[in-house]
Design goal:
The protein has 111 residues and is mainly beta. The chain is 0% helix and 68% strand. It is built from no helices and six strands. The chain has a six-stranded antiparallel β-barrel.
């Protein structure tokens, strides 16, 4: 099984910082760039608090990396492709030899 990894995505991790008023400010730190294949899935309308969004699920395939390696995506991180953001929901091996990883992700697009 081979995949055409033709998109450079930036892997980002969430870093919370104190805002000085007892709350937190959410920042995203770039961990590196991974070449990926992005395969769209199904879409639906979503949102909360009166804000309507369109949600598109997708599978993002990247090269395999050992568990614990900084280049291995984990749930809770995200990929960035310019202004597009894909939140990583789950990660699993895409093939028996673990040469590739499948990241089940969700892209939220303002409606």
């Amino acid at each position: 099984m081979t995949f055409r990894l033709n998109r450079a995505l930036v892997l980002e991790a969430r870093e919370d910082a104190p805002d000085g008023a007892g709350g937190l400010v959410v920042n995203w730190a770039a961990l590196g760039t991974l070449w990926a294949a992005v395969m769209p899935g199904m879409g639906r309308e979503g949102g909360d608090e009166g804000v309507s969004t369109g949600e598109v699920t997708c599978r993002i395939v990247v090269r395999g990396a050992p568990v614990g390696a900084p280049s291995r995506p984990v749930a809770g991180q995200r990929f960035r492709d310019g202004a597009r953001v894909y939140r990583i929901l789950a990660v699993t091996e895409a093939d028996p030899a673990a040469r590739y990883l499948t990241c089940f992700s969700r892209e939220e697009v303002p409606a």
